[in-house]
Amino acid sequence: MEKTKLPRHVAIIMDGNGRWAKEKGLSRNEGHKKGTDVVKKITQHAESLGIEYVTLYAFSTENWKRPQDEVEGLMNLLRQYLKQHIKEAKRKNACFHVIGDRHGLPEDIRGQIEQLETLTKDKTGICINIAINYGGRDELIRASRKMIMALQQKGLKAEDVDETYFEQFLDTAGIPDPDLMIRTSGEMRTSNYLPWQLAYSEFYFTNCLWPDFTVKAFDLALLEYSNRKRRFGQSE
Length: 236
Ligand code: FPP
Prior knowledge:
Strand order of the largest sheet: 3-4-2-1-5-6
Distance between the termini: 24 Å
Number of helices: 7
Order of helices and strands: EHHEHEHEHHEEH
Largest sheet: 6 strands, parallel
Strand content: 5-15%
Bound molecules: farnesyl diphosphate
Radius of gyration: 18 Å
Helix content: 40-55%
Oligomer: single chain
Shape: globular
Structural class: alpha/beta
Number of strands: 6
């Protein structure tokens, strides 16, 4: 595919782990485990294609309401994932960044996140953003609070705020907006995912459940993206 038609940034809602597990008579946590294997395959593939950023919705601010063993299962998968990438950081070129309210996470996971971010901050390969304890509205509120404090400290006024000023307080500050958002499992909504950042993104929905999502299925989404005409609100 022409490099110009390749999205720089792909955001993904990895939905359908539970249904996949149910279909197979497995536990929901086994669905999430298979989903983690798919995360690794897709991010490796995205890196090999030259995609610069992938942002994955791993755990929402609403997911705490799930049964305790599922929450624990997901936290354990995140621990394992972070541990593996901390171990591999030296010989790999990917950069990791976590978005979401990390203050609400178990302390050991926060420590792992900080370690992985520090170890990979100067890497020049793909940037993998993981949304953990993330909610879009929550992000906007946290950003607004930080901005109000900054305005007060710097003696600035409400009129000094524009989009560029506001954006620096988002969890995604410095990261370009996603060009493409993929959601698996047939649900056609954005579920509080990156409401600010997805304003002009192309959406791609597929019925495929996340654990069944393949490199080929990802390529299909890229192909469809390459055929879309992006106008950013302008006429042709
Ligand atoms: C949605 O499927 C998926 C999640 C809530 C969790 C996604 C997490 C992973 C794929 C694994 C951990 C991630 C990383 C980056 C290591 P669902 O459970 O809502 O599925 P359902 O709608 O079929 O029940």
